[in-house]
Inverse folding.
C-alpha cells in the first residue's frame, strides 16, 4: 500500500453551503501546520477548530472554516485524518486543493482509496466496504436499508462463520497429514463430515435467492410487451407520469426498447417499453422486435398488454410457452368495454385499465409492487448483492461436493482449502489484490 499522504474533496464538486476536504496519512497534520495558525503539538483529536485557512504558496486567505483532526488508529481508515469543512464555492474548493497539491509528498487520492486503506488497516472487510459503496449509491429506501445491514457486517459474519467452520476442519486434516501413522478417530471424522454437510447446505440455501440481492442494487426489470397499438407506450407514460415515449396510432412507432427507472415502494424498478410483437417486413422494426424478445427473456416480470376492444388474452398463447411464472396480463382500452365485459376479463385474471385515460394504472403498479415484495420476502434476509459473491459461493459448493474420505487425505484437505479460499475472496481474508482495484475503483473520489 502506498504510504503517501492523500487528499480529496469528499463532497460533490460544485456550489454548495459546505464542502469537506479530507486528508489522510502519516503527515496529515502537516496540512494544518502549513495552512492554519493551530499549534499541531497541542491539537485535540475530534475537536472542531474555527480558523483562517491560508494558501501554502503565498499565505493569502482562502477561507474561514472548521478544522477537525482524527488521530489514527481511531479514525475511519485507521490513519491520521484531517478534515477542512470549507464553504462550497468552486473558487474556495479549487484554492484549497491547489494549496494541498503544493505540500511535499501530498497527492490527490485515487477513487476509493480512503476506504481501501480502511480495508488494509482492518477497519472493514470487503463486504462492508461494498456495503458502504452501495449506501452512497442508494436511491431507494430498500437499497438504503440493505446497504446499511451489509455495512454493519451482517454478510461478513455469515461468510466468516462458514469459513471459520471450514478452517477448523482443515486444521484437523492438516494435523493428520503431519502424522500419517495415526488413524482418524471415527468420532472426529463424523464431526468433520457433519460440519461440511451443514456448511454446504447453508450455502446452497443462501444461493436460492434468485439474484434478488443483485436486483435490489441494479433494479427489478419489468418489460411491457404486446402487439402494435396495444397502448404499451401510453402505459409507460402513465407509469412515469410524463411524456417519456412518443405515442402514435401508427403501428411500429416504437422501434427500440425504452427504459424508465422508478422508485416503487422503496424498490428500484426499471420499466421497459418494447416494439410491438408482430410479423414485420421492415428491417429496423425486425431488429426492434428481436430486442423485445431478448428483454422478455431477461425480465423479472413481463406485463402482457393487449387492446381489449379488439383482441383477447389468447394472443399471448404462443408467448406463454417461453415465459416463466412472472407474467401479468393487462387488458387496455377498457373504457371502450361494457361493465360485463370488464368483469369477465377480471375473472380470467386480467387487470382492466385505460392507459390513455390513466384508469387502473395504480392497480398495475400495486400488482408489480406485490410481486416484487413476494419474491423479496420469500428469500433469506441476508441477500447476495454482487455477482462475485455468487460466483465465489458456487465455487465453495463445488469444492464441498468433492469432499470425501474415500481418497487421499491430502486431496480431501485440498477440497476444504479451496472452499475456504473461495469464501475468503468475498471478505478479503486471503490474498485478493487482483480484485481490490476493481472493487474500490467504483467508489467516488474522497471516499
Amino acid at each position: 500500500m502506498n504510504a503517501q499522504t492523500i487528499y480529496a474533496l469528499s463532497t460533490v464538486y460544485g456550489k454548495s453551503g459546505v464542502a469537506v476536504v479530507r486528508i489522510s496519512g502519516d503527515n496529515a497534520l502537516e496540512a494544518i501546520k502549513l495552512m492554519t495558525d493551530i499549534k499541531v503539538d497541542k491539537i485535540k483529536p475530534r475537536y472542531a477548530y474555527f480558523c483562517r485557512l491560508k494558501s501554502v504558496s503565498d499565505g493569502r486567505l482562502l477561507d474561514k472554516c472548521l478544522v477537525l483532526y482524527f488521530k489514527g488508529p481511531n479514525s475511519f481508515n485507521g490513519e491520521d485524518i484531517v478534515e477542512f469543512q470549507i464553504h462550497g464555492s468552486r473558487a474556495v474548493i479549487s484554492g484549497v486543493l491547489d494549496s494541498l497539491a503544493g505540500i511535499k509528498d501530498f497527492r490527490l487520492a485515487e477513487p476509493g482509496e480512503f476506504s481501501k486503506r480502511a480495508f488494509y488497516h482492518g477497519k472493514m472487510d470487503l463486504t462492508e466496504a461494498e456495503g458502504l459503496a452501495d449506501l452512497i449509491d442508494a436511491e431507494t429506501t430498500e437499497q438504503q436499508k440493505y446497504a446499511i445491514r451489509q455495512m454493519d457486517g451482517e454478510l461478513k459474519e455469515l461468510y466468516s462463520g462458514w469459513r471459520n467452520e471450514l478452517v477448523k476442519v482443515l486444521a484437523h486434516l492438516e494435523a493428520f497429514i503431519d502424522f500419517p501413522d495415526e488413524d482418524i478417530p471415527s468420532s472426529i471424522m463424523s464431526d468433520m463430515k457433519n460440519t461440511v454437510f451443514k456448511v454446504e447446505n447453508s450455502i446452497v440455501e443462501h444461493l436460492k435467492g434468485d439474484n434478488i440481492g443483485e436486483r435490489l442494487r441494479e433494479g427489478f426489470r419489468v418489460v411491457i410487451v404486446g402487439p402494435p397499438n396495444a397502448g404499451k407506450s401510453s402505459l409507460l407514460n402513465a407509469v412515469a407520469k410524463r411524456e417519456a415515449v412518443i405515442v402514435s396510432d401508427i403501428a411500429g412507432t416504437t422501434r427500440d426498447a425504452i427504459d424508465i427507472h422508478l422508485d416503487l415502494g422503496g424498490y428500484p424498478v426499471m420499466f421497459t417499453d418494447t416494439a410491438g410483437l408482430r410479423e414485420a417486413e421492415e428491417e429496423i422494426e425486425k431488429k426492434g422486435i428481436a430486442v423485445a424478445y431478448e428483454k422478455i427473456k431477461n425480465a423479472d416480470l413481463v406485463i402482457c398488454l393487449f387492446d381489449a376492444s379488439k383482441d383477447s388474452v389468447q394472443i399471448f398463447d404462443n408467448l406463454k410457452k417461453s415465459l416463466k411464472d412472472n407474467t401479468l396480463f393487462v387488458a387496455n382500452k377498457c373504457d371502450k368495454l361494457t361493465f360485463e365485459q370488464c368483469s369477465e376479463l377480471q375473472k380470467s385474471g386480467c387487470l382492466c385499465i385505460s392507459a390513455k385515460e390513466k384508469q387502473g394504472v395504480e392497480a398495475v403498479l400495486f400488482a408489480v409492487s406485490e410481486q416484487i415484495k413476494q419474491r423479496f420476502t420469500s428469500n433469506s434476509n441476508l441477500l447476495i448483492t454482487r455477482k462475485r459473491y455468487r460466483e465465489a459461493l458456487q465455487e465453495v459448493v463445488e469444492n464441498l461436493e468433492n469432499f470425501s474420505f474415500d481418497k487421499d487425505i491430502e486431496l480431501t484437505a485440498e477440497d476444504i482449502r479451496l472452499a475456504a479460499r473461495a469464501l475468503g475472496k468475498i471478505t478479503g481474508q486471503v490474498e485478493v489484490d487482483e480484485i481490490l482495484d476493481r472493487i474500490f475503483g467504483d467508489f467516488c473520489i474522497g471516499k
